[in-house]
Specification:
2 domains; formyl-coa transferase, domain 3; alpha/beta
């Protein structure tokens, strides 16, 4: 068994990041994912490079690291959806699938006869998931969208960055990734519904919706007060101290979520006198007196090196963290113990295994599996069309010669 989704087949019309991150989750959990790509071009992220996956001889392979990050456990089939025969082949393949996932601009696939309304009567059990910038309803439905644009429109940039600096986006494409995560959750809910009723449905995921949803406490802070939360740099809007702290030789993160933890911090930092000051004594007052508390604590932590603080806070049971580079992240003993890097043989790397970020999903009974490395463009076209549609040598050569596959 490949995992809890073993037996489910996904027709994957996603590209770039939001959609592929969703379908990789499904693939890791055991689903068979058939990734459809444009002949001769493929997913745009194949060209989001350098860097490329390294070869055994030290040179670059032909495969971008970006593409490899969200496309394992998939088979690549090249298919020209702009050609009527390509559309017909797609419909035949979809008929044998449980899930169709796509992240084209709203209305694009309907031009090819592959929209949800085009398929639902013929395939009533099909789960059809669309991930778009703004969803299939509303005044922005027809607009294209990109991660940075959604971070801007969705509000996170207004609360990220230094107070006197410019609005700042998050350092990874979080709007894409979170919409992909919500899409995977929604698909699994739709699978359960189909198991109970036999009915498929349309899953309509908007990147902007997902972004608004994960504004979380900051969104609630606004709804409760009607006031726009300010940018606080590395500080927390509702907890102090919960931020980057200066040390004698660098920085670390201090996370004090309640009064007992602050008392333990004061003990570890030899500053119990602060507990007698009402500005410091309770969590609410520390937030109300943020500037004074921060300035005072910065003066205390700046007197000792990072290593001293990490050792002291560990012993005191106070939340802390070193600020790691990515080199330090992947060398961290906890990350290693959790096996967050997986190596997979790849046809383009000349015998050198490709290092990939592993799935964070840990299931005791049905663990994720790593069955197929990120595919080269069209690597499985003949294999899939042969298995699923019975097409053989001459038919495949004819389709390839005419640019359909």
């Amino acid at each position: 068994m490949n995992g809890p989704l073993d037996g489910l087949v996904v027709f994957d019309l996603t590209r770039i990041l939001a959609g592929p991150s969703c379908t990789q989750i499904l693939g890791d959990l055991g689903a068979e994912v058939i990734k459809i790509e444009r002949p001769g071009a493929g997913d745009d992220t194949r060209n989001f490079a350098p860097p490329y996956l390294p070869r055994a001889d030290g040179g670059d392979s032909s495969e971008s690291a970006y593409f490899a990050g969200t496309n394992r456990n998939k088979r690549s089939v090249t298919l020209n959806l702009g050609h009527p025969e390509g559309q017909a082949l797609a419909r035949r393949l979809i008929a044998g699938c449980d899930i169709l996932a796509e992240n084209f601009k709203t209305g694009t696939l309907a031009k090819y006869g592959l929209g949800y309304d085009d398929l639902r009567d013929e395939l009533p059990g099909l789960i059809y998931c669309s991930v778009t910038g703004f969803g299939h309803t509303g005044p922005y439905a027809a607009r294209p969208a990109y991660d940075a644009l959604i971070q801007a429109m969705g509000g996170v940039m207004s609360i990220t960055g230094e107070p006197d600096g410019e609005p700042m986006k998050v350092g990874v494409s979080i709007a894409d990734l979170m919409s992909g995560m919500y899409a995977a959750v929604a698909i699994l809910a739709a699978v359960r519904h189909r198991h109970l009723t036999g009915d498929g449905q349309h899953v309509d995921i908007s990147m902007l919706d997902a972004h608004v949803a994960w504004l979380a406490n900051q969104g609630m802070n606004y709804l409760a007060t009607g006031e726009n939360p300010p940018r606080l740099g590395n500080q927390h809007p509702n907890i102090v101290p919960y931020q980057v702290m200066p040390a004698a030789d660098g920085y670390f993160v201090l996370s004090v979520a309640n009064d007992p933890a602050f008392e333990r911090f004061c003990e570890a930092a030899d500053c119990r006198r602060l507990l007698e000051d009402e500005r410091f004594a309770t969590a609410v007052e520390r937030v109300r007196n943020r500037d004074e508390v921060t300035e005072t604590l910065n003066g205390i932590t700046r007197a000792r090196p990072v290593a001293w603080w990490l050792e002291r806070l560990e012993a005191a049971g106070v939340g802390y963290g070193s600020i790691n580079t990515l080199e330090e992240v992947f060398a961290d003993p906890q990350v290693k113990a959790r096996e967050m890097v997986v190596e997979m043989d790849h046809p383009a790397t000349g015998g050198r295994p490709a290092k990939l970020i592993a799935s964070p999903i840990k299931l005791s009974g049905t663990p994720v599996t790593y069955r197929q490395a990120p595919p080269t463009l069209g690597q499985h076209t003949d294999e899939v069309l042969g298995e699923r549609l019975g097409l053989g040598g001459e038919a495949l050569r004819d389709l390839r010669d005419r640019g359909i596959i």
